[in-house]
Amino acid sequence: MLEVDEKHLDKLTEAFYLILKGQKVKPVILPDDHPDNELKQLVGYVNRFVGSYNDFTGAMTSLAGGKLDFELPKSGMTVLQLLKSVQSSLRHLTWKTQRIASGDFEQQVDFMGDFSTAFNSMTAQLKDAFQKIEQQNEQLQQAYEVITQEKEKSDRLLLNILPVRIAHDLKTTGRTVPETFENVTVFFSDIVGFTNLSSGLEPKTLIDELNEIFTAFDLIIENNHCERIKTIGDAYLAVSGMNGGHAAHAENIVDSAIQIIRYLEKRNSTTTLQWKIRIGIHSGRVVGGVVGIKKYIYDVFGDTINTACRMEQNSEPMKINLSEVTYGLVKDNYELSERGELEVKGKGMMKMYFVTDRRRKL
Amino acid sequence: MFKEERDETLFDWSMLGDINAGRPNMGGTMDVAVYRLMQFTLRDVLIKEYGVADADRIFLTAGKKAGQEFYRNVIKKCEDFNDLAAKLQNTLRDLKIGIVRFERADLDKNEFVITVAEDLDCSGLKISDETICVYDEGFLSGVLQEFTGKEFEVKEVDCWCSGDRVCRFEAKAIN
Fold it and tell me: Which of A259, B4, B77, B131 could form a disulfide with B159 if both were Cys (CB 3.0 to 4.6 A apart)?
């Protein structure tokens, strides 16, 4: 008959009591001199069970906290083996999720029951959504490119009719204020006998001719750092000194005028239609500003403009007529001939000069 | 061809023959038990003749050769590691070899943790406190070597046979 000390049975009872109460259990210790009997064998099995139970509790605590890197000892207990399977599956799902997060939607999860179905369905939907977003991005990119091209076109158009600075102000603030420019030289030209010449031409021919001539004027003006303000019928108005206040504004305009005369002379030598112009140039203060709120027109105002126009009216075919003010600014560098004082409508007598070329340096 | 003496391995994928032509009625698959019958009788004789260490070395080397040939002929070219992982998983599933799952991959260090569930070699065997998937270790090292161009050491750290339900392999590049 096996004799059992009651207090050892109490220890075994306490161990299972603590397990059922969810508390940590320590191994049951028997005295060293305890006989090697059935009770000792039972205590040995209970302690192995307690050890596995503690391992399981520790692993489940990690799992509950989302930690998957716990170590499980080898065990014959099914519950520990299954927990290892769960750990492996969760690690694999984590790894798959990381792959999908990096944009690889070809990853699939196999043989995990409802997990596989839900996960693979999610991946398929993500792939679909991602492809849609990519398509939308592509469409947006195409639309952006179209808008950019259209904006470039509209910017070019705006720059064709407005000075750079004014176009920038209108684009950024929607408005611009008139400005006074103290040192500006104004170019004014008009085609001699335009009314008579044009009356015998088809409208299209006339427009083509003016377009060709004024396009050539524009290039010359631009190359000499000047700015075309507008054309009024056969008249052409340009300035220098408004865009950044160029110091050589008078010389820039005079150089442009000389080159324009040469261009027309060359053109007339090869064409039936003979276009001749008069050019007037004057320097002084100018006010510039945008006129209108819908169809923007940048225009220049002031007595300097009127005087340049008068210089043109007092010029001669294929001649460049300078006011005394402009003469004073360019006299050292150009071939000039004094014309004396001429009557100017509304202004009285004014000194004028023809300019023919740049003075050649010796 | 099959039985000539050799100093270097002479295996070629064509040695597997035209199974469809040769087995029009039996087909290309067979019972897993038959595969295990061959594997464990072969292992039995190899251990008896050469000892456990040499038997393991032979299985490991053969598995590595199989992994290299499998990569070249079945998996084929992979664009990147994700592609390899997907193709390895899919081909081993489709061929009913096992359920491959990557748990961890450190591409900078070339270190991977891979599990194979329902493994052809061991799943369902008696628990014996032994890790026995030596052929799988070689197979995975062969696949990884073909993909990366680097020699790999693959160690089975958990096995069905040792009571772990899944076979877990730790792979790392040598040098």
Answer: B131
Cβ-defined contact of B102 to A92 (cutoff 8 Å): yes
Q: Which of A145, A161, A177 is the last residue of a domain?
A: A161
3 state DSSP class of B138: helix
Pick A84's closest partner by Cβ from B101, B105, B166. Answer: B166
Start-end of H helices in chain A: 6-20, 38-64, 78-101, 114-161, 164-173, 194-199, 203-223, 249-268, 303-313, 324-330
Number of A/B CB contacts below 8 angstroms equals 62
Separation of alpha carbons A112 and A331, rounded Å:
96
Does B103 contact A92 at a Cβ distance shorter than 8 Å? yes
pLDDT in tens, chain B (175 residues): 788 999 999 999 999 999 999 999 999 999 999 999 999 999 999 999 999 999 999 999 999 999 999 999 999 989 999 999 999 999 999 999 999 999 999 999 999 999 999 999 999 898 887 888 999 999 999 999 999 999 999 999 988 888 777 899 999 999 7
Same domain, A119 and A198: no
Asked whether residue A149 is domain-assigned, the answer is yes
| pLDDT tier, A249 (very low <50, low <70, confident <90, very high otherwise) | very high
For residue B92, give Cα distances in angstroms to A21, B87, B101, B119, B143: 46, 8, 11, 10, 12
Per DSSP, the three-state class of B24 is coil
Residues A80 and A56 in one domain: yes
Is there a single domain that holds both residue A124 and residue A205? no
Q: Is the dihedral of CA A68, A70, A73, A78 positive or negative?
A: negative
Q: Which residue has the higher pLDDT, B129 or A17?
A: A17
pLDDT tens digit sequence for A204-226: 999 999 999 999 999 999 999 99
Structure tokens at B31: 């019972």
Give the per-residue pLDDT at A245. 59
Whether A186 is in a domain gets the answer yes
Query: Cα(B128)–Cα(B150) distance, rounded to whole angstroms?
Result: 33
A108 neighbors A126 (Cβ within 8 angstroms): no
Distance from CA of B163 to the nearest CA of A (A): 6
Answer whether residue A362 is part of any domain.
no
pLDDT band, residue A72 (cuts 50/70/90):
confident
pLDDT in tens, A124-161: 999 999 999 999 999 999 999 999 999 999 888 888 77
Q: Among B164, B169, B170, which would you mutate to test the A interface (most chain A Cβ atoms within 10 Å of its Cβ)?
A: B164
Domain of A214, CATH number, reads 3.30.70.1230
In which domain, by residue range, is A353 found?
164-357
